[in-house]
Design goal:
There is one protein chain. By secondary structure, the chain is mainly β. It has one domain: Metal Binding Protein, Guanine Nucleotide Exchange Factor, Chain A (Beta Complex). 5% of the residues lie in helices and 38% in strands. The protein is built from one helix and ten strands. A hairpin with a 5-residue loop joins β1 and β2. The radius of gyration is 13 Å and the shape is globular. The protein starts with a strand and ends in a 6-residue tail after the last strand. The relative contact order is 0.29. The model has no long low-confidence stretch (mean pLDDT 94).
């Protein structure tokens, strides 16, 4: 297990978790994720393992479609650090570009998840 630390661009939203070594990434092709372009952790992270440190006014939430997935963003800089998944409520995926320990997220092998057809 590896300890990961991350934040949005301005640092108003910080988070950490312990998880498997990240050797690949995941993209989703749903309408939101396709526009956002983030590379996510392949592993889902149970809510109890994700420690979030954010000022009360910093963390925004966006839901669409069925409203099950919770997409979080920094209200100050707009960066999307993580989301609670639709398929596994109570579990999160993290934007690997927000992690201090990932030097080059574009160097990861990335697969595509078909979120477009989940509904």
């Amino acid at each position: 297990m590896t300890q990961y630390h991350g934040s949005c661009h301005c640092g108003a939203v910080k988070f950490s978790y312990e998880g498997e070594a990240i050797e690949s990434g995941l993209r989703c092709n749903c309408s939101l994720c396709a526009r956002r372009g983030a590379i996510m952790t392949p592993e889902t992270i149970p809510a109890e393992r994700l420690k979030i440190d954010a000022a009360p006014d910093a963390l925004g939430l966006y839901r669409f479609g069925a409203g099950t997935a919770k997409h979080y963003f920094c209200r100050h800089c707009g960066i999307y650090p993580f989301h609670e998944t639709a398929r596994a409520p109570g579990h999160f995926r993290v934007n690997v570009a927000c992690l201090d320990e990932i030097e080059d997220p574009y160097a990861l092998d990335v697969s595509v998840f078909d979120g477009k057809h989940l509904l």
